[in-house]
Design goal:
A 5-stranded mixed sheet has the order 1-3-2-4-5. It is built from 7 helices and 5 strands, in the order αββαβααααββα. By secondary structure, it is an alpha+beta fold.
Length: 246
């Protein structure tokens, strides 16, 4: 073969350089468009592509129940602790779709002691005040009534409607308003501090375990998301089998 003239060789190199540059630009544009698309999906509440599962580490030390809202027998075989947010849609799904059946089957029957802890997320503007109001309602033995109302009717979480909602379940409005910035605030701050110490960042998060002699809980399982009654039942059944096998 005859060698190409130097001018033609230089021209081919120029074309190759242009081709490489064009490919790099196209790849960059594709990357940017994909990133923007994923961000839009996240902001619209639409699921993005599947991600690797997050490994959730169990606490090695017993978890305290002090200050938690409790329902069920204190001598129940198992304890479940929920960290929740009144404005979280997944928490609301659990509370409205799963909780009534779970309470009837496991809590009211004496099989499980259930503890509720607050973790109002910063992305939810009404969650913090609702958590404080619920804690103040608990001091009037109205916590679970408020729990059900807040999750059932999210529109009532607007700050100006909270006291009115609490009054619907028989709570004293003046006592509630006086409690919000004192006992209610302190109780919620304590729950949030415990959640942070346990590495909990999302709601709802559930700890399943057994009660120790001092009233604290040895955590054996951790579950996240709006648990269905079937999943809840499966976890409890697995704990029962593990206990029987020892």
């Amino acid at each position: 073969m005859f060698p190409l003239p130097k001018s033609m060789t230089a021209r081919w190199r120029d074309w190759l350089d242009l081709l490489v540059a064009a490919c790099m630009i196209a790849a960059s544009v594709t990357f940017v468009m994909t990133a923007l698309s994923l961000r839009r999906s996240a902001s619209n509440g639409k699921p993005g592509p599947a991600r690797a599962p997050v490994v959730e580490v169990l606490p090695t030390a017993p978890v305290s129940l002090q200050g938690a809202a409790l329902v069920g027998r204190k001598d129940a075989a198992f304890v479940v602790i929920e960290f929740s947010d009144f404005q979280c849609p997944y928490c609301a799904r659990f509370a409205t779709d799963s909780w009534p059946g779970i309470r009837a089957k496991f809590i009211d029957s004496g099989r499980v002691l259930f503890a509720f802890r607050h973790l109002p997320l910063s992305a939810h503007p009404f969650a913090l005040q609702a958590a404080r109001m619920a804690e103040c309602g608990r001091r009037q033995n109205r916590f679970w009534e408020l729990h059900d109302l807040f999750f059932r009717d999210g529109a009532r979480l607007a700050t100006e409607a909270l006291a009115e909602t609490a009054a619907r379940v028989g709570a004293n409005r003046e006592q509630l308003e006086g409690c919000i910035q004192t006992e209610g605030r302190e109780a919620v701050e304590s729950d949030v501090a415990q959640a942070q110490a346990l590495g909990i960042r999302g709601t709802p998060t559930f700890f399943f375990g057994t009660s120790l002699k001092d009233g604290s809980v040895k955590v054996l399982r951790r579950q996240s998301g709006a648990l269905s009654p079937d999943v809840f039942s499966d976890v409890v059944a697995n704990l029962q089998r593990d206990r029987a096998a020892k």
